[in-house]
Specification:
heterodimer; A: 531 residues; Aspartate Aminotransferase, domain 1; Aspartate Aminotransferase, domain 2; 7-stranded mixed beta sheet; 18 helices; 17 strands; B: 2 domains; 11% strand
Chain lengths: 531, 485
């Protein structure tokens, strides 16, 4: 699939810390010592070194067979929906110099990575949907999006609450009147204290009232996306790595790697373990990283997990913490779906574990946000919660690059402070999620499609392996394309989430109204019946 | 021992970026802020506190904004009238931004430039304030170790915004008071040469127009020279036009966009504008930063990177509405200009009356004050000494020129738009009193010196009098937070 003239002239600019070797010029150099081994010269060392080297090159080659971006056709600024076929076509393009050139203009090497046309199905699907969105009346043949984890089920509750409760003085109240100075001027970059207090209460409520959160340990930012980037900038240097159990949220590949230069090492989980993280696998990945001289600075877990929808057990959290302590690394717990817990299973935050353990809190950090549980992704509110004073201090200074907007903070304070409403909202939202989830899973069952047991999140982890042929990533991507082009359904294939087993797809059901489900199933049926 | 080694272990748990000084908050610029934070002025509660004159914030037209928001409840969403838009706005997270927002921003930028240029809404990219915009462009245009040329004096925040996480450097283009700190082709070429000699790769030039801290505008010839220069070296031009609408007097503001349109042979792919609503409209709390690039690839990259600093859709919606209210905006721009001009005039005239000159400027939320004659000696140490007196004796947080990398000691930036009239009068009174007192003392010292040199008496006595003034117990430098640093 990859071009044979695959070269990397400026390899120092890549994220991979493994040294690459131009495979074409390496050929001769390998043959000669091999001769020596065969003829009894060169000996055991070369005899074991060379196959090992070849093995590593093979691993490396396979790992990187996904085509590298080329910068010769920069997309126009107004339409960023790339040609789907580029997924395959770009693999036949030569890898150009990593400095992208437009005319004679040079951009940075970081820029060239970002400039590349989307090659992840996660983003390509998103673009396709945006270019041709389904609308019952205006565009009934458009793409139905099951790719973005958005919750549209309960926004009406908020709208109703706002219209009966708020007025313009919410923006900055002084008694009954508006005093807008409060939101116009420079605010503390790490967020309004009132909002931190309100969020501490909200997070506690969301996580079952079993743990309390301290507002002074919070740093607010314009989304969980900048929050996790800022945290990573604080915990790791360029070239360091984080261990991430797979499958994982495709956005991490951008959010964490793009500008920090930090690498993500996938730690594969299997369906036989319900895709739960395995400590032995973590250990192995850590050791392998060490062997190649790569420093692991932390482990990133999502709880509830994305894309599978598992809730990590207490024991598992203890094990992860023990592992981190043993290796002296950080634990980042992305708990952004904690409140979207429709399954009724108890959610345990890593904060709760720390309450029990009372040890080594400095290595634990939580990422949260309001985009999922409160359905307000547009408002851009992310939380970094850390037990580490130094991390808090450093990240507070970094928030000036990504602060939350003051009027929005005021609105959220008002909303979150109405704890009665919030309780009602969270309960109703969970019920609605459950309902749609049940209908969705039942619909898939009727098509003979099973889902992994899940209890939280806005998606289900669907097993389409019996419909893919061949049983590998290629087969999976072919099914994905068919679903996108023929069925006009955008769902995220497991390979975009680095899942080691082909055939799994993440389907977000919370963008759907109940009445849309039969249509979705009908479209899926058309494709799978043919397979 | 175990405690120390555990601490070390903990420190090692953090990255270089988290533990280095890249945040710049240990510089003099921020020391004044700390002094202010410890003892903030309040007209009634703390009339002897430190007056903040180091923050370039525009508070002069809040009343106009307030009036508009109250009269347009639908725009804020968090009202009964606006609630019906809530669902679509809250769920919208496309990093392209609301189309109406981009259109309104483009239109506003055109208006501010007197409708002499057009801006394409599709080139508008959001960022986390101008702070985020600068960092984003640095990430796009330069690699770690590369440098941007920046004319001095420049906004201290650039040291952090362009360098901290990006690893990019700043290389100064020295401008001098002899020609009012104008940017000359000669200075640009010299700086470029110097950088080449030191093996530093220059990737771009960063200019501020209107200038912070000078408050002056670039004229058309200078802009043309700059554009010619960057074209000849094939480097990028990042034009920070964040103060574009704070112009309160002639000559009018000329944007780089006007020059770029006119110059044939200019490679537009090198031109990028940073903008924000924090200064012109006085909304720093809203966190609206804008990157406008003439380079398609940069727009694409910046847009993807904008995920790290998107503007809240509620804010986008509010601003789309406000900025499209053409009648309001025209009135606002005119009124804001007038109030800024009036305020600046009061200060500069008041200072002139006591013999303090300021650089002639017609824009910005500050002026560049010349205190060279008050320095003990023409050094930066003397400047910092004088500055400490101003902070702790006169109780004004003004910003010393050294923190702006000014090549000559004795200049201070004074912000005037972040206070009400009464505070302004208090500030002016304090400066005038200080100047007159210092002049009086200096005269006494000068007289004593003359006497001493004639009669060969010890001079130390007269210095002691000066020291007594400066070291009065209440305001001893030993109490200064600066002593810590």
């Amino acid at each position: 699939m990859t071009s044979t003239s695959h070269t990397k002239p400026n390899s120092d600019t890549e994220n991979d810390t493994v040294k690459s070797s131009p495979s074409n010029s390496g050929g001769m150099r390998l043959v000669v010592p091999l001769q020596g081994v065969v003829q009894g010269r060169g000996g055991l060392i070369l005899g074991s070194l060379i196959p090992c080297a070849l093995f590593y090159f093979l691993q490396f080659y396979l790992k990187r067979h996904r085509p590298k971006p080329s910068a010769c056709n920069p997309p126009s600024p107004s339409t960023s929906s790339p040609n789907l076929a580029e997924l395959h076509r770009s693999s036949s393009r030569l890898n150009l110099t990593t400095r992208s050139s437009v005319g004679r203009v040079f951009l940075s090497s970081r820029a060239s990575v970002v400039a590349a046309p989307n090659d992840s199905p996660y983003y390509i699907g998103m673009d396709r949907f945006r270019a041709d969105p389904y609308n019952e009346l205006d565009n009934p043949d458009g793409v139905i999006d099951l790719g973005i984890a958005e919750n549209r089920l309960s926004l009406d509750l908020m709208e109703k609450w706002i219209s009966s409760n708020l007025n313009v003085s919410t923006l900055g109240g002084v008694g009954d009147g508006l005093n807008i100075n409060g939101i116009l001027t420079y605010q503390p970059f790490d967020g309004l204290t009132e909002l931190k207090v309100a969020l501490a209460g909200f997070m506690s409520q969301v996580m079952g009232e079993k743990v309390s959160f301290d507002p002074s340990r919070m740093v607010l930012m314009s989304g969980a996306t900048p929050a996790i980037e800022v945290l990573c900038f604080c915990l790791a240097d360029h070239g360091n790595a984080l261990l991430v159990p797979t499958p994982y949220y495709p956005g991490f590949d951008r959010d964490i790697r793009w500008r920090t230069g930090i690498d993500l090492i996938p730690v594969h989980c299997r369906s036989s373990d319900a895709f739960m993280v395995d400590i032995a696998a973590l250990d192995q990945a850590f050791s392998q990283a060490r062997k190649r001289g790569q420093k692991v600075r932390g482990i990133l877990i999502s709880n509830p997990s994305n894309p599978v929808g598992n809730i990590l057990s207490r024991e598992m959290l203890h094990s992860v913490l023990d592992f981190a302590r043993e290796k002296n690394i950080h634990v980042i717990s992305d708990e952004i779906f904690a409140g979207s817990n429709y399954g009724g299973e108890e959610f345990v935050s890593v904060a709760e574990i720390l309450d029990e353990e009372d040890a080594d809190r400095d290595r634990v950090h939580i990422i949260y946000g309001l985009s999922k549980d409160l359905s307000v992704p547009g408002f851009r509110l992310g939380v970094l919660y850390s037990f580490n004073e130094n991390v808090l201090e450093a990240s507070k200074k970094l928030t000036r690059f990504c602060s939350a907007s003051a009027p929005t903070q005021s609105l959220l304070v008002a909303m979150l402070s109405d704890t009665g409403f919030i309780k009602y909202y969270m309960r109703t939202n969970r019920e609605r999620l459950r309902k749609v989830f049940d209908l969705f899973v039942a619909g898939l069952e009727q098509l003979g499609i099973k889902c992994m047991n899940s209890s939280a999140g806005l998606y289900c982890w669907v097993n389409m392996s019996k419909f893919i042929c061949p049983y590998n990533e290629k087969g999976e991507l072919e099914l994905w394309e068919k679903l996108l082009n023929v069925a006009k359904i955008n769902m995220t294939p497991g390979s975009a989430c680095h899942c080691i087993e082909p055939g799994w797809f993440r389907c977000c059901f919370s963008t759907l109204a109940e009445k849309d489900i039969p249509l979705v199933m009908e479209r899926i049926r058309k494709v799978v019946e043919r397979s | 021992m175990e405690f120390i080694s555990r601490n070390n272990q903990k420190q090692q748990l953090l990255s270089k970026i988290a533990t280095n000084d890249g945040h710049g908050e240990n510089s003099a610029y921020f020391d004044g802020w700390k002094a202010y934070a410890n003892d903030p002025f309040h007209l009634t509660d703390n009339p002897n506190g430190v007056i903040q004159m180091g923050l370039a914030e525009n508070q002069l037209c809040f009343d106009l904004i307030q009036e508009w928001v109250v009269n347009n409840p639908k725009a804020s969403i968090c009202t009964a009238e606006g609630a019906e838009d809530f669902q679509e706005i809250a769920i919208f997270q496309d990093y392209h931004g609301l189309p109406e927002f981009r259109q309104a921003v483009a239109r506003f930028m055109e208006k501010v430039r007197g409708d002499r240029v057009t801006f394409d809404p599709n080139r508008i990219v959001m960022s986390g304030g101008a702070t985020g915009a600068h960092e984003m462009l640095a990430f796009c245009l330069a690699d770690p170790g590369d440098a941007f040329l920046v004319p001095t004096p420049y906004y201290p925040g650039f040291d952090r915004d362009l360098r901290w996480r990006t690893g990019v450097q700043l290389f100064p283009v020295v401008c001098e008071s002899s020609n009012d700190f104008k940017v000359t082709r000669k200075a640009l070429e010299e700086a470029y040469e110097k950088a080449q000699e030191s093996n530093i790769k220059i990737k771009g030039l960063l200019i501020n127009n209107p200038s912070n801290p000078l408050g002056t505008l670039l004229d058309k010839d200078t802009l043309r020279d700059i554009v010619t220069f960057i074209n000849s070296k094939n480097i990028h031009l990042v034009c920070d036009e964040i103060y574009a609408s704070t112009v309160f007097d002639q000559p009018r503001f000329i944007s780089v966009s006007e020059v770029v349109d006119e110059m044939i042979g200019c490679n537009q792919d090198l031109i990028h504008i940073v903008y924000s609503l924090s200064k012109d409209l006085g909304f720093p709390g809203f966190r609206v930063g804008i990157v406008y690039s003439y380079n398609d690839t940069v727009v694409d990259i910046a847009r993807k990177m904008s995920s790290f600093g998107l503007v809240s859709t509620q804010t986008q919606h509010l601003l789309a509405s406000m900025l499209s209210d053409e009648i309001f905006i025209e009135k606002f721009i005119a009124e804001s200009s007038e109030r800024l001009g009036k305020r600046q005039g009061m200060f500069t005239k008041g200072l002139a009356q006591v013999g303090i000159s300021t650089l002639k400027s017609n824009a910005g939320l500050f002026f560049w004050m010349d205190l060279r004659r008050l320095l003990k000696e023409p050094t930066f140490d003397a400047e910092l000494e004088l500055w400490r007196i101003i902070i702790h004796e006169v109780k004004l947080n003004v910003s010393p020129g050294v923190s702006f990398h000014c090549s000559e000691p004795g200049w201070f930036r004074v912000c005037f738009a972040n206070m009400d009239d009464e505070t302004m009068r208090t500030a002016l009174r304090r400066i005038r009193n200080f100047v007159l007192q210092t002049k009086g003392l200096n005269n006494k010292v000068a007289v004593l010196k003359k006497q001493c040199s004639r009669s060969k008496l010890q001079i130390s006595l007269s210095f002691r009098r000066l020291d007594d003034f400066m070291n009065s117990p209440a305001n001893s430098p030993m109490n200064s937070p600066l002593v810590r640093t």
